[in-house]
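Researcher: Go.
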Amino acid sequence: MSEQKTHPPLALGKKQYGIIAQAIERWREGGTIDDQLAERLSNSIAAASFDWQRTARYAFIVSIFCLVIAVGAVLADEVLLALLKRIFNSPAIVKCGFFSLVATGVFRYGLYLRKRYPHRAYGNESVFFLGVLALAVAVFFLGVAIDTGSGHYSLLFLIASALYALLGLWFPSKLVWVFGLLSLGAWMGTETGYVSGYGMYFLGMNYPLRFVL
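Model: Structure:
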């Protein structure tokens, strides 16, 4: 006697599942089908679970498009455009302070969103990514403000690495922590390059070997 093949239950939307399950129950109660057939029919359907991961990916993509649209809207507004020109024409230290405040506000907003919507992982991390960019711009303008013309800019990568690492541990956020590690690697590469006069070797090691060690 051949074995009967078993098939996985048919995944249905919650509304469809409810309608069909109610119909099977009424058929059973009305005697149209017996209990055994009703059980088989009930086992052949299932309510589909909501795909949060896919929704989060779509939300992340939509948020990027919204950011692009928002930037375009800001640039189209003459008043805001004049304000941005005034900010960018100000001294570097003022720009550093401005973007530091922007980064602080973005990170605080990201923490608020993660606390309120902890299941929206991609959306929350996209907000943290904007904070990472704002903090990088702030560190850049800090370097412009304290620049002495020596070309020793590797210190900026070390400052960024320390800030990202502290923020990544405080939140915590894997994305911010990754940028901390990347900044640390950039500092190591630029610092050893500066010490060696930007030659190919530092203590007999080329760039790949330095990062391996």
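Model: The radius of gyration is 29 Å.
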